[in-house]
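Appendix B, record 7
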Amino acid sequence: MIKVEWFYWLCGILFVLIALQVVNDRGNPKRLGSAAFWGLLGVSFGYGTFVVHKQAPAWVLGLAVIAIAVLAGFGFPARGQERTTTPAEREHFANRFGNKLFLPALVIPVVAAIFGAWLAKVKLSNGKLLLETGSATIIGLGVASILALIVGMVLFRPKSPAVPLHEGRRLLEHIGWAAILPQMLATLGLLFTASGVGKAVGNVTNHLIPKGSLIAAVALYCIGMALFTIIMGNAFAAFPVMTAAVGWPLLVQQFHGTPAVVFAIGMLAGFCGTLCTPMAANFNLVPAALLEMKDQYGPIKAQIPTAIPLLACNIVLMYVFAF
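C-alpha cells (predicted):
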C-alpha cells in the first residue's frame, strides 16, 4: 500500500534542504532566523508521523508550531540571494520551447485525476487498496509533482540537478510565511469544530432567524459561510462550522433541502469570502508577491465587485433549486 505520509516526508526533506541552503547564504541578512523557520517546518512533517502513531509526545510539535508563528511575527523568513536564470536566458527558453514549457505543469492535474478517479479503486492481491484510504488525491498530487519534476529535467536539461531546489527556494522566499497559512487555517477549522463553535453559532442563529423563514435561513447560511471564510481564510475550514450551525439542522432537517445542492452552493458562497480576504493568502497575497505588485491587496480590491453580487446569486440559486 502506498501511504500518504511518504509524501509528507518528502515535503519535510525539501524544507530541510532549503533551510540548509538559507543558513549558508551570506547574502541573507536574516539567514539564521529564516533557516530556523524552514527547518522547523521540515522537521515537523517527519515528527508528525510519530505523534500520529503515539510514539512521540505531541507537545514538542506544538512548541515547534508556536516557534514558527513567532518567527513569522518577527519578519521571517526573509529573501536571500537569488540563484535563478537571467531575463535573457528565460527569453531564450521561451523562444526555444514555446508551449512545451507548460508540459510539466500539465502533468500534475492529469496524473492527479488518474489517481483520484481510477487508481483509488485498485486493490492488491491481498485485497487491500493500492492507495491509502481517503488519501488518493493527495498521493496522486505527490506522484504527479515528482513526475512533473522528471519531465521538466528531461525536457529542459538544466546545468545542475540542484536548479529545481534553487527555484523552489526562490519561490518560497517570495511567498514567505504565507506559504504555510493554508495549513494553519485548516487546523483552525478542525479546532473550531472540535471545540463546539458550530453549536454555539447555531444557538445564536436560532434567535436571529424569524421562525419558519426559509429565505432568512438560506441567506444566513450563505452569508455566514462567506464571513467565516473571510475570518478563517479557507471555505473548507468554515464549512463544518456553518453546516453544524445552520446547514444541517435548519436547511436540511427542518426545511428538507436537498443536501447535495445546499452544501455545494454553500461552498460556493464560502468561496465568495475567499475573494475578499488576505487570510486566503494562497489566492490573494501569493499572486501579488509573485507578480511583485506595488499593492499587495490589489487582487482583493479587484475581486470584491465580483464577490458581492456572486454571493447574492448563490443565495437565490440555493433558495430556488435546493427546496
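Remarks on this record: The mean pLDDT is 85. The CA atoms of residues 85 and 91 lie 10 Å apart.
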